[in-house]
Specification:
single chain, 135 residues, mainly alpha, 5 helices, 3 strands
Length: 135
């Protein structure tokens, strides 16, 4: 199976150059999804870095910095720095970033509807694996 250029049809998810695969490489983390959600809820207003960190439990300062850098680099968010001491850094979704909120919200909805089933399947699998262990 060969991949097709995006202009001629759907890409091949197994091809590293497939648009879907490239997008999932960029946005397929929980931190990206959470940052987009926080920024989307604030739209059209900006959110300061410290507020983003407060609203994303468990994210480290470094991981949030990396996530926001990626969102900004990909044109999904904008960054504004106030020249104060210390500097105040603000983020906001671009129109492109705002359009990402819809499919991410659909994914969150799917997860809320189906995670109990997935957790149940995991419990069954774990119990079967435990039962198969030698005594």
């Amino acid at each position: 199976m060969t991949s097709q250029p995006a202009s001629r049809g759907r890409g091949d998810l197994f091809d590293p150059e497939c648009p879907t695969r490239r997008l999932l490489d960029r946005i397929g983390t929980k931190w990206t999804s959470m940052a987009v959600k926080v920024l989307a809820e604030a739209a059209p207003h900006e959110v300061r870095f410290a507020e983003l960190r407060r609203r994303m439990p468990g994210v480290s300062q470094k991981m949030l910095s990396v996530t926001l850098h990626s969102l900004t680099r990909d044109g999904l968010a904008t960054r504004r720095v106030e020249p104060t001491v210390p500097p105040r850094v603000h983020y906001r979704l671009t129109d492109l970033g705002s359009s990402l909120e819809v499919p991410l919200a659909a994914l969150r909805d799917w997860a809320e509807e189906h995670m109990a089933q997935i957790d149940h399947a995991n419990a069954i699998s774990d119990a079967e694996a435990e039962a198969d262990k030698p005594a």
